[in-house]
Amino acid sequence: MTAPQYKRILLKLSGEVLMGEQEYGIDPAYVVRLAEEVKAAMETGLEVCLVIGGGNIFRGVAGAARGLDRTTGDYMGMLATVMNALAMQNALEKLGVPTRVQSAIPMASVCEPYIRRRAERHLEKGRIVIFAAGTGNPFFTTDTGAALRAAEMNCDALLKGTSVDGVYDRDPKLFPNAVRFDTITYGKVLSDNLKVMDAAAVSLCRENDIPIVVFSIRERGNVAKVLAGEGVQTIVQEES
Ligand code: UDP
User: Fold this and answer.
1) Residue 13 in marked binding region
2) Which residues, judged by CB distance below 6 Å to any ligand atom, belong to the binding site of ligand 1?
3) Could you tell me what this protein does (predicted)?
4) What number is the average pLDDT over the span 210-232?
5) For the chain, what are the domain ranges?
6) pTM of this prediction?
7) Helix (H) or strand (E) holding 237
């Protein structure tokens, strides 16, 4: 596969990858490992935007199931993403990578508020920008937040690092003979209800012609491999 010519990417990591082998929370050693991957991506000359989920700390739907209002749970989930963003900022800066966190929910003494033009300037100056607090609205996910920011920041691709190495026709954890796609269209992901990202996120990427690259972040060095057009991945795009 030839290396795609990306200039600016948005990397979306689900909160779960920050917990390492733990059952929940943040494993600082694991965050450092992820920060090294992000640094490697930046060192290829790319401008890197980052969105991190919050599922390792709090999920709104789970809170709602236990009696919290869905909206309250969702706001708690968004706050969780800010904690993850701060942990990642800390790890990146320890590696000497200048990083700014911008939150969709303003919290002036913790990080910057989301300001698109300011984020643009940070990227031009070679800083990584971590977009926290998802879309800032309940009933959304950080996948949708990632697609939104990728569109706003004119990213060439949305890289989704998860614990699975691509998009399969069935859940590979339940069906050992599930087949992985190399490429797949947005339409098929939506019509077959394949578990890549939620439908709102996939639609937003389709409307803005942003390819979604799904790959495993658990494999060391994989971000750089994927950026070089190597490694195992699935690309969701208009025509395969
Ligand atoms: N969330 C939200 N609006 C957003 C983004 C996130 O309400 O725009 C809440 C929602 O409750 C979600 C939680 O934050 O469950 C954590 O985000 P997500 O589940 O997307 O994290 P991930 O699965 O990527 O770790």
Assistant:
1) yes
2) 14-16, 53-55, 59-61, 73-74, 77-78, 81, 134-135, 137-138, 140-143, 145
3) Catalyzes the reversible phosphorylation of UMP to UDP.
4) 91
5) 8-236
6) 0.95
7) strand 234-237
